[in-house]
TrEMBL record:
The lineage of its organism: Bacteria, Bacillati, Actinomycetota, Actinomycetes, Micromonosporales. It comes from the Bacteria. This is ABC-2 type transport system permease protein. Keywords: Membrane, Transmembrane, Transmembrane helix. The chain crosses the membrane at residues 55-76, 88-109, 130-157, 177-196, 203-226, 266-284.
Length: 292
């Protein structure tokens, strides 16, 4: 009878296929915030993405650029500005709304739809950091959308000025217009990112952003036709676009075209409250998303 072979414990073999531990520096929260902000800013203009993603941002940028070039050419030829620097953002309000409506879902709704937020929050990145990076990217993109054409207009006017005092006078009009463009960027972006963060589907989110800016327009129209001067002067408070225009009439243009009367400070306070409220609700939204 043959003797059975002794049983041996099952074993395994470790193959070294070249994986190594990461020994480099580990960047922290600040670097992650910066990388997310830069990536979001590139996304706003479709950079690093497909040609389809670039169409709408480039189309709006091209239209605004053409408007600025035409206005500059008229200014150089006639010596008269058809539109002042401060009026330029107001003239393009609907294009700013469309830009924010197209970009904000790409920044926030896509991450909700693809379910990648747990991956972001698995890193040393606070929920507020994510929200601020996305909001900051859209504010920057919207500001550049307005600031670059304004700079083109200023350059054309400066080169056609008769002397240095004329250039300095142009700069004095150009600088407040940049601040006004920044105000547009902050207010419009705050509303757009908040609305887009509530909807997963990008098309629905884009429509919701446009509706947020236009839904109160009929209410403003009704208040304007009422036979009371006070209600007419306060009617701009119900719409984000006219709210910003009211602040512009108060601080940057002094033209009172919107007819806000002596309620300029109230328009300023409501604008600050609107932005603060949007940011607070955005933080609350991502705290809720992180818990779900």
């Amino acid at each position: 009878m043959p003797t059975p072979e002794p049983r041996t414990a099952p074993g395994g073999v470790i193959h070294d296929i070249g994986y190594q531990r990461y020994e480099g520096p580990r960047l922290g929260r600040r670097h992650i915030f910066g990388a997310l902000y830069l990536h979001s800013l590139r996304t706003a203009f479709g950079l690093g993405r497909s040609a389809k993603a670039k169409i709408f941002p480039l189309l709006i940028m091209s239209v605004i650029g053409v408007v600025a070039v035409v206005l500059t050419a008229i200014r150089v030829q006639t010596g008269q500005a058809p539109v002042s620097y401060a009026q330029f953002p107001e003239t393009l309000t609907i294009l700013i709304v469309f830009f924010c409506a197209a970009v904000s879902p790409e920044l926030v709704s896509r991450d909700l739809q693809n379910g990648v937020l747990p991956l972001y929050f698995a890193r040393p990145l606070e929920r507020t950091d994510y929200a601020l990076a996305k909001l900051g990217a859209l504010v920057t993109a919207t500001f550049l959308l307005l600031a670059v054409p304004l700079t083109v207009m200023f350059a054309g006017a400066a080169f056609s000025a008769a002397n240095l005092s004329g250039v300095w006078r142009e700069f004095g009009d150009y600088l407040p217009a940049l601040l006004y463009a920044g105000l547009h960027a902050v207010v419009f972006s705050s509303v757009a990112v908040l609305v887009a963060s509530l909807v997963k589907r990008r098309a629905v989110a884009a429509a919701a952003v446009v509706a947020a800016f236009l839904v109160t327009t009929p209410v403003q129209g009704v208040l304007l036709v009422l036979p009371y001067q006070t209600t007419s002067e306060l009617s701009g408070l119900v719409n984000p676009a006219s709210l910003v225009a009211g602040v512009g009439d108060w601080l940057f243009e002094k033209s009172n075209v919107l007819g806000i009367g002596g309620f300029g400070p109230l328009y300023g306070l409501v604008t600050v409250a609107l932005v603060a409220g949007c940011v607070a609700l955005l933080f609350a939204r991502y705290r809720k998303v992180a818990r779900s």
